[in-house]
Amino acid sequence: MQFGIIGISYRQAPIEVRDRAAFSDSKKIEFYDRLREQGICQAVILSTCNRSEVSFLMADEKESAVVKEEFLLQCGSPELKEYLFEKKGEEALHYLFCVAAGLDSLVVGEDQILGQVQSALDFSRRVGGCGKQMNRIFLDAITCAKKIKTQLKISEHPISICYIGMKCLAKACKIEGKTALVIGSGKMAALALTYLRDMQAKQIYLCNRSMEHALTLKGEEERICVLPFAQRYSVMDKCDIVVSATASPHLVVRREQMGKREHSLYLLDLATPRDIDPTLAEEEGVQLFDIDSLRAVSEENRKERQHLVTQGREIAAGASRETLQWLAASRVDPAIASLQSRCAAVEEDTYEMLDAKLHFSDHEKRAVRKILHAGFKRLIREPILALKGLDNELEQRKYGEVICSLFSDKEEGHHAH
User: Fold this and answer.
1) Which one of 41, 49, 75, 144 is the catalytic residue?
2) For residue 226, which phi and psi values (nearest 5 degrees)?
3) Is this structure's pTM higher than 0.85?
């Protein structure tokens, strides 16, 4: 029995290909059913916006080919074969552990993927697609991911310029309950609006040269008030925070046009070239964060993240090796179960024969049962340890078949007294 993963991820495929490979819940159920029909009874489907992957346990390479074929049928496009990746054994386990910890994500260290891995496992359990081995593999991956997140705290080192800027603002002044102005309507401005909403800004003004673009960005958010671009200076008198992120080749916030202020003002310039007059930083009560200082923090965080990611991969490698050892040992479980079952049957036969001959008292019955159980358990202890110690799959299979053949209860129901 070997662990494998087949799938499509953002590293190999563009978004239109990933969309075609996505699994709805109904498609997942159909896929699990098709795999079961072909003898593959343990699988977990992980389907997110960036990846569609099937983890499975296979008895041989033929079953890997079956999963690949079914996956392409699911996509409805055999030509997607060029985008497929396939991993087996230790490589596949290490990959799964890294995925669960967010080490393989587009945004390294992100937290959402861990919940998605847990949900994938839960869904597989509900539809009967997950057995003892697959359950253990995924639980080990989830446990390892939590350890990496708790121990390394990778997500506490953001590399997004906008997010770092908002963190700087939040550190300088508590954003909750404050009034903010956002200038611009591009991606950075949209991110700034999202962060300001999430950080509970009380009122948010938005202005841009194009009112149409600004209104589109506002959407249905009631806390956002769209103003004409020309009113940006007048509304600044009401604001605690100004975030500017335009594509203008000139300054859009000039020192000489700013009025006198009675309270502190926090400025975040996310534009290149600059939007905000850098000399405003000289004004009393004004604090300015610009793109250069934010880039320095971003680069420092990037280096620290890379160092932490390397540590995370090492932790995942150690944990996945332990799971691989457990999975290898589990291949002899049927042989051990056969040995234990036959031993228990002989133990019971022996007790019944002794009791019939010697007519034990209640106290003697308990004592004899304990002695027999300990003796028979000791008898099979060393063979069981030897089986668990085998790491060669061919040897495991050979010894397992011999034990199952020799110790299967062929005379089940018949007891010699």
Assistant:
1) 49
2) -90, 130
3) no
